[in-house]
Structure formats: structure tokens, C-alpha cells
Amino acid sequence: MDFLNAIILLLNYIFIPALTYGSQLALGAIFVTLIYGILRFANFATGDMMSFGTMVTILFTWYFQSIGISLGVLPTALIAIPFAILFMIIYMLFIDKFVFKYYRVNKSPPVQLAMVSIGVMFVTQAVVRIIIGPSDQRFFDGEKFIIKAREFKEMTGLNEGLALKSTQVLTIFVTIVLVSLLFWFLNKTKTGKSMKAYSDNEDLALLSGIDPKKIVMITWIIAGILATIGGALYGLDKSFKPFTYFNNMLPIFAAAIVGGIGNPFGAFLGGYVIAFSEIFLTYAYKKFFMYILPESMEPESLVQLLSTDYKFAVSFSILVIVLLYRPSGIFKGKVL
Amino acid sequence: MIKNLNVIAAYSIMMALIILVGIFQSWNVALSIFNLCLISAVMTMGANIQWGYAGLINFGIMGYTALGGLAAVLISVDPVQEAWRAGGFDILMCLWLIIAMVFAIRFILKNFEKSKFRTYGIAAIIVAGIVIIRITAEPGIEAIEGVNPAKTGFLGGFGLPIIFSWIVGAFFAGGLAFIVGKVALGLRADYLAIATLLISEIVIAIIKHEDWLTRGVKNVIGLDRPVPYEVNLQTTDWFINLVAKFNSGKLELISNVADKQAALNQLVIEGSSVFVKLCYSGLFLIIVIILLILTQKALYSPWGRMMRAIRDNEEAANAMGKNVVKQHLLIFILGSAIVGIAGAMLVTQDGLFTPGSYRPMRYTFLIWVMVIVGGSGNNFGAILGGFAVWFLWIEAAPIALFLINFFTVNMSDTNVFKIHLIESVPYFRYLTMGVGLLLIMRYRPKGILPEKIEIK
């Protein structure tokens, strides 16, 4: 019984939260990696683009709530997301046309594009804060829990409860569906394949008649979808605050690079690598050992490898180590 | 003279703008803008050395600034004897352990061939070292943080004059830059950017959470000043006489003695804070001028030419026998050290150290905007960038407020839209910065004062 308790404990405090957080990071990381692979620059506006998408989702959610549309047990934001995506794609294409295109056409070095993306970051951040303000916004409605900790205890008779939030299930489910669709698109359709070709070797792709304008446009569209959904899921699960989204850019970058930048599958797994290591290393295992060890050997301290304050530092340290020993990332992205 | 006309014109406009603020808002505001402009200028000079001279991208400016600030605390605060007695021994032990660890790793690196075995050995040493350090440090840290936590709860510093911290800050930042440079300089430009950004976040995380060293988010306040305090000035005779002399024209107009005294008191209070700020301005100006002379000399020296050669064509410079890796490391350390000075200056001026306030927007990206807008590779441009961008950063909100009021003059004051806009005035500074950066990058990619190399 103690053994089961220990497993439930790990599931509840490590596995499920890490899987959720990892999914949110993974979507962001694929976004970064796509932009890097096809448009060839590190997009420092990632976090703020996600917060822009989330903001639009929130605005639509509020609108739907005010006219009385809801999905019952599911959050209203789900209906708002498609509209937000549309809006976001327009925003992305607008930015591309008026900002990034010039540098792409002139074949500027990637660093210059990265600097330009900092300009976009400032502007997007300002727009988000001017429209919705810098404070916390919650826009979740519907049923909060699928399984409540107390119910689970009553059901199974265990000491440890397992709480399963609906946003967690939703996040994981949506991520899996979206990522599968994306990989299907990239690997099976003609457009997807031409995107890969363009990312691999631009000149060769142009020679074989691939239209760069179309590739770029589709990249921004996919990026818009990923940014909006990733941001909205994060906002539903935790809460929406522009500053947090800006900060999330850093673990997202870490995930993309750890997975091998330019490699979408690597980015997907990189998100989970980052999330799991963050939570594994900062969790206090005291209770876990209390369950599995005999009473005489119970630990006195918290058995925590690092204090939770260093959560972000963990992912950055992983990144530094990866950059040192395997700069192309775990799953072989572009060699730097 | 004619060829430097644009420099002179740009600086005159900048000075005129600050003087205008002095006339229309107050001299206090103008001087505090001016002081922060000077500090920003030091930071941009540091970033400019790395980016403009050598083409190295460093997004870790925040980390070096914070280390400079930490130096100010460690130098100027009096040592907390009780805390040293409580846990000083443990901390010193840890220090020795870290040094032993570093030497062990160096020994292995030197004496063993590169192999998997060596890598695992080093990893094992690091992991074991961290575990041992944690076990030794824990009781000491708890004891130190337990000493009067509301007021101290940390080891304190050396109790020296805070001015020394400007040098120590440079050494701290340079030391960090040495480690970062060893680790990350081999990376390609945009990866270097990301890596340095993340490393600076790690530095901030450590400063925020190692309370025994920095008090963490509890902040250190009331640091010593290198300049007189306002309260003391207000009771000093020579200062009161000075203010009276300065404003004699104004004071003579008042005939009533009591009124005259009241007016003088008011002037003394205002004057004292202006005087303190002027003292800071003097100190900062000295630093800026020294650094400007040094960096200009360096730029036109053979060393500067070599740096440009390396920047413009690494392979060719390498083929000419220049040690690119070594020079990159050197310039990375130099630039970061200058940023460290600025960090110490900033904390000196504020008189307090707040680790929570170090955010990448303010201390990394804003500085980069300054470098790009001012003109990378040109020291005068970098300083001007520091001035212009900081000025805009502060004045963007009042300007935005003015514009909003101007355009919404027809709306009533209870209009929801208008109220919302006025509430969000502070965020227009981000908009100004972003749009400014984008416009400059598009239409004047070399900055307001572009790099100009005279070949003699």
C-alpha cells in the first residue's frame, strides 16, 4: 500500500504537472524552432507573441461570456481560440510584411534579424500592456477538476490524493493532437516537405521551384497557431500575466536548443526534458522516502536537490551543458 | 572641426533637451535624468566595446550590472560580526572546497587525455563537490540567516568607502565574464546571445536567493554615500550662505524678514538635493570621461585595428597570426568589467541594492537599444545612445500623456476609453523604444552617429 501511495505522490506532484508544463513549453519550442529553421533567426519576441495570442483569446472569451455562450464543463476559451488564431495570423503576417521581410529580402545576417525581433518584442509587449494591462487575468471557466484529491482518496482508500485538473488533461490532449497534425503536415504533405527542403538548403529549394513567399507565409501561419494555442493553454492552466510570458521565453529557448534547434521533433521532446528536469530536481522527496523506506531510515531533511527558487536556473544550466558538449542539441538539429 | 559637426550637434541637442526639462519640470528631475544617462552611457560603452569593436553579442548585461551592485554592497556594508561568528567558518570552508574543486578539475584537464573517462570524472567531481558543499554550508547558512533577520541576516561586507566598489565591481564582472567567455564564446552569434541571456538569469537567481550573501529579496538599504547627505547640508553654514548668495536677487525682493527666512529654507531644501545630485554627476562624469579617453585610445591603437580586423573577417585575422579566441575572451572581459563599474555606480547612487529589480528588459534589452540607436563601434555614438534612449525612456510617459490628452480633448473625463489610455501611459515607453529601434534599424542601420574609421 505504501508503495502505491508513493507512486500516486510522484504522479500527483511530479509527473502530471511536468507533463502539462512540458506540453506548454513544447508548443513554444516548436514555434521557435520553425522560425529558426525556415526564417533563420532567433525570435526574441516569442514570449510576447504568445502573450499577444493569449490576450486576444481572453478578449474573445470575455465577449462570448458576456453574450452568454459557454461550453458547459469545458472552458469558453476553447471557442475563442479559433478566432484568436485568425487574429494572430493577421498580426504575424502584418509584422512580417512591415518588419522582417525587408531584412529577409536583403539577406541580412541572422544577428540583425534577432535585433529586429527585439524591436518587435518591445512593441508587442507595449501593445499587450496597453490593451489588457500588466496584471493577472484569469479566464478559466467550466469544471475545474476531473478528479478531486478527496474523491480519489475515498475511491481508492489510499492516503495520497490524486488531483487531476481539467486544464492539465486539456493541455496534454490538445498538444498531442496539434503536434501529431503538425508532424503529419511536415512529413506527408507536399507543402510540408517543401518547407523541410527550404529549411535544409535554401538555394536548392529555390532551384527546384519552391516558392519562398508561400513557405514563409505558411511558417508564420503555423507559428501563429502554435503561439496562440500554447499561450492560451498556459494561461488557462496557470494565469495570464504578460511578464510571466516574457520570462517563459527563456525555458522555451532552452527547450528548443536542447532538442536541437531547427528540428521540430527535438523541440517537442526538449520541452519535456526541460520541464521534467526542472521539477525532478526541485521537488522535495521527503514524503516519498517516508513511504518507501522503513521507519528507521526515514530522512530528516526535505531531500530536495535544489530549492524551488532555482527552478529556472536548472533549465538554463541544462542548456549550458548541452551547448558545451553537444552544441547541435540532443536530437541533432542544425550544427552551429 | 567641420567633420565632427554631427557629433557636436547631436550632443548639443541632447544637452538642450535636458536643460529644457530643468526649466520646465525641475532641476531635480533634470539632474536625476542626467545622472542615469551617465550611468547608461557607461553601460553602453561596455556593450559597445564587445559589439562594436569585436562583434561579440552579449545579452548578459543584466548579470554584470547586478554583480557590480553586489560589489557595492560587499564593499561598503559593515561586517556583521555576530553572523561571522555564527556561520563564517562554514562559509570559509565552502570557499576552500570550491577552490579545491576547481584545482582538482584543472589537474584532471591537464594530466589526462580527452576521453569519456575524463568527462565522467569531472562530472563526478562536480556532483560530489556540490553535495559536500551543501552539507557543509547548510548549518552555517541557517545560522547566518538567523542572526537578526529583520535587519541583517547576512555576512555584511568590508566596511570600506563605497567608491572602491567601482573597481571591485569591475573585477567581479570581469571574473564572471572570464567564466562565461570560456564556456560560451565558441558559439555562433545568436546562440551566444541566448546563452549569455540565460547565464545572466542564473546569476540573478543566485543573487536573489542566497540570502546569507546578499540578503536576497529583503534588499540592502541605507548604503554609505560618497557625497554629503541632504539633511546634513541643510544645517551647514557654508551651504546656506551659498544658496543665499546664489539666490540673492530673488531673496532681496522679499522685504519681510520672516518670509525671507522661510523662502531661504525652502530654497536650501531644494538646493541640497540638487547639490547632492550635482556631486554624483561630477563623479560619474569623471568616470565617463576617463573611460571615453581610454576607449578612444584603444580604438585607434594597433589593438583596436586588430579587433576590427577580427570582427570583419575572423578567418583572415586568424591567418595573419592573430589569436582570435584569446582576443575575444579579452574583449569580453573588458566590456563586462565596464558594465560592472556601471552596476556599482548605479547602486551607489540609489543607496540601496534590490536584487528583485534586475530585469532583462531594463538592464539588457534597453542597453542594447541604446547601443544600436547610438551607433555601434563609435564611442561617442554609444554615449549619445545612452543619453537619448534614457531620456526618452523617462520622458515617454509624460509625452504620451500630453498626446493622449491632446487627441482625446473632445471626450469627457469619464470616458472609459480615455481613462484606460491614461492608466496605461507607463507602457508607452516600451512602444516608443520598440518603434524607435525598428525605425533606426530600418533607415539608419549604423545608428545616429555611425562608426567612422579614419585611416591615417
Describe, in short, the structure shown:
Chain A is mainly α. Chain A has 13 helices and two strands, in the order ααααβαβαααααααα. Chain A has one domain (2-325): Orthogonal Bundle (ABC transporter involved in vitamin B12 uptake, BtuC), CATH 1.10.3470.
Provide a descriptive summary of the structure in words.
The complex is a heterodimer of chains A (336) and B (456). Chain A has 13 helices and 2 strands, in the order H-H-H-H-E-H-E-H-H-H-H-H-H-H-H. Chain A is mainly α and 336 residues long. Chain A is globular. The model of chain A has no long low-confidence stretch (mean pLDDT 88). In chain B, helix 1 runs antiparallel to helix 2, helix 3 runs parallel beside helix 7 and helix 3 crosses helix 15. Chain B is globular and about 90 Å long. The mean pLDDT of chain B is 89. Helices cover 76% and strands 0% of the residues of chain B. At the A-B interface, helix 4, helix 10 and helix 13 of A face helix 7, helix 16 and helix 19 of B.
Number of strand elements of chain A: 2
Q: What is the H/E string of chain B? A: HHHHHHHHHHHHHHHHHHH
Assign a percent range to the helix content of chain A: over 70%
Cα distance, first to last residue of chain B? 17 Å
Mean pLDDT rating of chain A: 88
Main features:
heterodimer; A: about 325 residues; mainly alpha; ABC transporter involved in vitamin B12 uptake, BtuC; two-stranded antiparallel sheet; 13 helices; globular; B: about 450 residues; 19 helices
Secondary structure blueprint with pairings:
The complex is a heterodimer of chains A (336) and B (456).
Chain A: H1 2-39, H2 46-66, H3 77-105, H4 110-132, E1 145-147, H5 149-156, E2 164-165, H6 166-188, H7 190-200, H8 202-207, H9 212-237, H10 242-258, H11 264-282, H12 286-292, H13 311-325
Antiparallel strand pairs in A: 1-2
Chain B: H1 5-24, H2 27-53, H3 61-76, H4 81-111, H5 116-146, H6 164-184, H7 189-209, H8 211-214, H9 230-234, H10 237-246, H11 248-252, H12 257-300, H13 302-312, H14 314-319, H15 324-350, H16 360-374, H17 379-407, H18 416-423, H19 428-443
Helix pairs in contact in B: 1-2, 1-17, 2-12, 2-15, 2-16, 2-17, 3-6, 3-7, 3-15, 4-5, 6-15, 10-12, 12-13, 16-17, 16-19, 17-19
